[in-house]
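Preliminary data (for renewal application), adenosine-5'-diphosphate complex.
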Amino acid sequence: MSHELRTPMNAIIGFSQLLLRQKHQLGETQADMVNRILNNGKHLLALINDILDLSKIEAGRLELKVERFRLSDLVKATTEELRSLADQKQLQLLITDQLANPQILNDSSRLRQVLVNLLSNAIKFTDQGSITLEIREVSDDRLAMIVQDTGIGIAPGEIPHIFEEFRQVDQSSTRRHAGTGLGLAITRWLVQEMGGHITVTSVLHQGSTFRVDIPREIPNGRTSEAELPHCLAPGDQPLMRN
Ligand code: ADP
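Predicted structure:
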């Protein structure tokens, strides 16, 4: 199913990118149209990926693939990928790596997904100032990853809800930004599955801090159906279940 959904999107995104490389052959209006196809295609692909993740979570089929790697390398690579987004908004992206021992046991691509979600939200909801990512040891066997921004902040009453599926804070400035409203629900589930937890503190109009605490080593295991309610609010119906 995921193949059928992703393949047409890859064609739409790939051919739009090819067309834009031949920009000189396109008129200004045509280039603008292709740009819109590309941006909307990317947005739709992100939505498809999030919905597929959520349906895997709810079916008990999302498995962490545990391996040993250097968290510092993952952080470096991920922040370099996102740096151009921060640059476009003239935001500083600062990394503080205080790990004495950078070796961890985790699922590198899922941990990367957690970092991308938090950092891209921080960039998206900040118009001026900086984004900082700090990684450090909390104890011998636990680490913290802290993403802090100087953005629009989140009202106290909204904080408990931002981890719910499809939940987006209803502020006009928030809605200027595209998003699926699924990133934090998936992020929280992944972090909990890693044996960790995520917390947020925020001051409206001043900024937000998301903190992820995880064990240095997570056990290699499969998600079981019994663990599903993690990311569902009480009374919520599971999505995408046929
Ligand atoms: P989205 O795709 O909308 O970013 P998320 O699940 O990642 O969905 O986030 C849910 C909502 O939480 C966002 O729409 C936004 O209203 C709020 N939010 C998340 N991160 C931040 C942040 N760093 N600053 C302000 N608001 C945030």
